[in-house]
C-alpha cells in the first residue's frame, strides 16, 4: 500500500532533487524510497555480522572527530605513563 508523505525542504534542495530525478529518469519520491531502502539494507547487513551488544553500540560515534592518532595517544597515555 502506498501513502502520501509531505516533506518540508529548502527550495534550492527541492530544485536540485527534481533536477537529479529528471537526469536519472525517476521521481523524487522514488529516490527517497530508494535511499531509505538502501540505508535499511546497509544497517541490517552490518548489524547482523556483529554480536548483539556490539550491534547496539554501532554508529553511536558517527558525529565525532576521532582519529586513529587520538586513539594511539590515548593508549600511550593509559599504558606507558
Automatic annotation (TrEMBL):
InterPro entries the record matches: DUF6364 (IPR045944), Ribbon_hlx_hlx (IPR010985)
GO BP, sorted A to Z: regulation of DNA-templated transcription
SUPFAM superfamilies to which the protein is assigned, alphabetical: Ribbon-helix-helix
Protein name: Antitoxin
Organism of derivation: Fodinibius sediminis
